[in-house]
Amino acid sequence: MSTLNVSLPDSMRAFIDRIVSEGGYSTASEYIRELVRGDQQRAVEARLEGLLLEGLESGEPVEISEAWWQKKKA
């Protein structure tokens, strides 16, 4: 695991310390990692939604069946 040093205003550091002390997270690092994971997940979901919309708008609908999946996998 790598280390990243971040400068924060005192008010943000106090907020993080309060979140940690209230028992939500063991450390400030754990809290920050959870925030980054949440952003990563939202980015993945936004990308997937865009791809789904692109697929829906791409032309004639295709009926998806077991045979269709097998053909796609081959």
UniProtKB/TrEMBL annotation:
<dbReference type="Pfam" id="PF03693">
    <property type="entry name" value="ParD_antitoxin"/>
</dbReference>
<comment type="similarity">
    <text>Belongs to the ParD antitoxin family.</text>
</comment>
<protein>
    <recommendedName>
        <fullName>Ribbon-helix-helix protein CopG domain-containing protein</fullName>
    </recommendedName>
</protein>
<keyword id="KW-1277">Toxin-antitoxin system</keyword>
<dbReference type="GO" id="GO:0006355">
    <property type="term" value="P:regulation of DNA-templated transcription"/>
</dbReference>
<dbReference type="InterPro" id="IPR010985">
    <property type="entry name" value="Ribbon_hlx_hlx"/>
</dbReference>
<dbReference type="InterPro" id="IPR022789">
    <property type="entry name" value="ParD"/>
</dbReference>
<dbReference type="InterPro" id="IPR038296">
    <property type="entry name" value="ParD_sf"/>
</dbReference>
